[in-house]
Amino acid sequence: MGASSGSRFQACRDHAATEEALAACGVPFTSLRNGFYADSALRFLQPALEYGDLALPADGPVSWTAHDDLADAAAAILAGEGRFDGPTPPLTAQEALTLDALVRLASEVSGRALTRTTVSDDRMREQLTGRGMPAEQTEGLLGIFAAAREGEFAAVDPTLAALIGRTPLTLEDQLREWPPLKQ
User: How far is CA 164 from the centre of its chain?
Assistant: First the structure.
């Protein structure tokens, strides 16, 4: 995931500020630019398994990346101290998928007929705040979709594969092992 002061997603703006603060200290540092966590895609998918439809705002391609792969990369980076000076290249899976593609893939893996409905940001905001989600959290979540639409999570880079010495897990791999789809 990128770090950018102009990101539509607050976490990316926070990462950018952290990297700037670290650089200003004048000491060597490494900042891991992890791909967007695949666990988030699975959390987004959870309601679709119950209701048959994934109803979320418009998105864009996201390089959904496995925590296990990122942990292996972090270990490799720590073992090779000094390998990176400053931010790493994007540590990502080898494909970027939209939520439409996620739903198609989950349908194939599970054998269930799942659909995707696109709701407006305003409708999603109303639903979330109507359920009691604080406004700041709601805007943070909506920022994910806005940033994805802008292509902020679409990067695919070979660095993760090089660090871990194998092809990173695909989202399909993760769906096949995800307990809710194995039932």
Answer: 19
Instruction: For residue range 135-168, list pLDDT tens digits in order.
Output: 999 999 999 999 999 999 999 999 999 999 999 9
Whole-angstrom Cα distance, residue 149 to residue 46? 22
Domains of the chain: 10-182 (3.40.50.720)
Sign of torsion over alpha carbons 77, 30, 70, 78: positive
List the beta bridge partners of residue 118.
Answer: 56
In angstroms, the CA 17 to CA 21 distance is 6
The arithmetic mean of pLDDT across residues 29-56, rounded, is: 95
* Spatial distance between the Cα atoms of 92 and 62, rounded to a whole number of angstroms: 10
Nearest partner of 57 among 6, 103, 116, 2, judged by Cα:
116
DSSP string, the chain: ----TT-SSHHHHHHHHHHHHHHHHTS--EE--BPEEHHHHHHHHHHHHHHSEEEEE----B-EE-HHHHHHHHHHHHHTTTS-SEEPSPB--S--B-HHHHHHHHHHHH----EEEEE-HHHHHHHHHHTT--HHHHHHHHHHHHHHHTTTT----SHHHHHHTSPPPPHHHHHHH-HHHH-
Sign of CA dihedral 76, 67, 58, 175: positive
Q: What is the pTM of this model?
A: 0.92
